[in-house]
Amino acid sequence: MVARIKKNDTVMVVSGRDKGKKGAVIKLNLKKGKVLVEGVALATRHVKPRRAGEQGGIKKEESFIPASNVMPVCAACKKPSRVNSKRLETGKKMRICNRCEEIF
Prior knowledge:
Blueprint: E1 10-13, E2 22-29, E3 34-37, E4 42-47, E5 57-62, E6 65-66, E7 70-72, E8 83-87, E9 93-97
Antiparallel strand pairs: 1-2, 1-7, 2-3, 3-6, 4-5, 8-9
């Protein structure tokens, strides 16, 4: 089976409070079906300094969102699209854009 979303893919959020935002996938949690996307679902964290010289404060960082809320963006047509798979002559499976049929 070919994965729909992989690390470093550009994705667009299709539902939720960050709908319409684009970003790169930083991390995947396949067991829980969640993804961490750069610049999306920012949460405010209050951080205490743990070591001498370290600075605490209020920091914003990304939090996980459901993988079903994001859609991969095709590099060729620059639009969010569903992913299909096709087997090449070499026997390798590749991800293909459903809109323009280009390889991801």
